[in-house]
């Protein structure tokens, strides 16, 4: 996919009080990209085989988390995001979120300061430099 499409949208998943993207833990022997594609398919019903990945883009977030099973111990969580394109907008089959929404690509976006906004800013910089180009994995 090259050039600038007429209409570009991105998908966000809705939690009770925030927007998010599909994500989850890596399974044994699984790469970050394999995890991202598996989790996207599990949480949205979008087949991994229909997603074209721009393999020049990745975005990492690190933040502290606490799990109820480990008491007050704080862990640093890493989340890696990839940039993927779809030819057609599929019907969604949501399994872990009450809803999802396609948002029009029109940076700068102000959705969620600590996670979504920095990711979308990085995507905008990447697109300004490289355009809308997907390279399959």
Report on the structure:
- It is a single chain.
- With 137 residues, the chain is of the alpha+beta class.
- The chain has one domain: Nucleoside Triphosphate Pyrophosphohydrolase.
- The protein contains two helices and five strands; from the N terminus they run ββαβββα.
- The protein has a three-stranded antiparallel beta sheet, with no helix packed on it. The chain has a two-stranded antiparallel ribbon with strand order 3-4.
- β1 and β2 form a beta hairpin.
- The chain is globular and about 45 Å long.
- 14% of the residues are buried.
- The model has no long low-confidence stretch (mean pLDDT 90).
The sequence of SSEs as H and E is EEHEEEH
Rg on CA atoms, Å? 15 Å
Please tell me what the overall shape is: globular
Strand content: 25-35%
* CATH superfamily caption: Nucleoside Triphosphate Pyrophosphohydrolase
Estimated structural class: alpha+beta
Strand arrangement across the biggest beta sheet: 2-1-5
Instruction: Please state the average pLDDT score.
Output: 90
**What proportion of the residues is helical, as a percent range?**
10-25%
Here the CATH topology equals Nucleoside Triphosphate Pyrophosphohydrolase
Low-confidence stretches: none
The CATH C-level name is Alpha Beta
Number of strand elements: 5
Domain module count: 1
Q: Total number of helical segments?
A: 2
The largest β sheet comes out as: 3 strands, antiparallel
- CATH architecture name: Alpha-Beta Complex
């Amino acid at each position: 996919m090259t050039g600038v499409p007429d209409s570009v949208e991105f998908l966000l998943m809705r939690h009770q009080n925030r927007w998010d993207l599909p994500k989850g833990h890596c399974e044994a022997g699984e790469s970050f990209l394999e995890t991202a594609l598996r989790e996207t398919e599990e949480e949205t019903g979008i087949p991994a085989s229909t997603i074209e990945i721009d393999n020049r883009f990745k975005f990492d977030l690190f933040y502290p988390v606490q799990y109820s099973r480990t008491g007050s111990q704080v862990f640093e969580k890493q989340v890696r995001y990839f940039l993927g394109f779809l030819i057609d907008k599929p019907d969604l089959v949501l399994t872990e979120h009450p809803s999802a929404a396609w948002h029009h690509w029109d940076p700068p976006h102000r959705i969620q300061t600590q996670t979504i906004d920095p990711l979308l800013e990085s995507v905008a910089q990447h697109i300004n430099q490289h355009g809308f180009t997907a390279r399959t994995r």
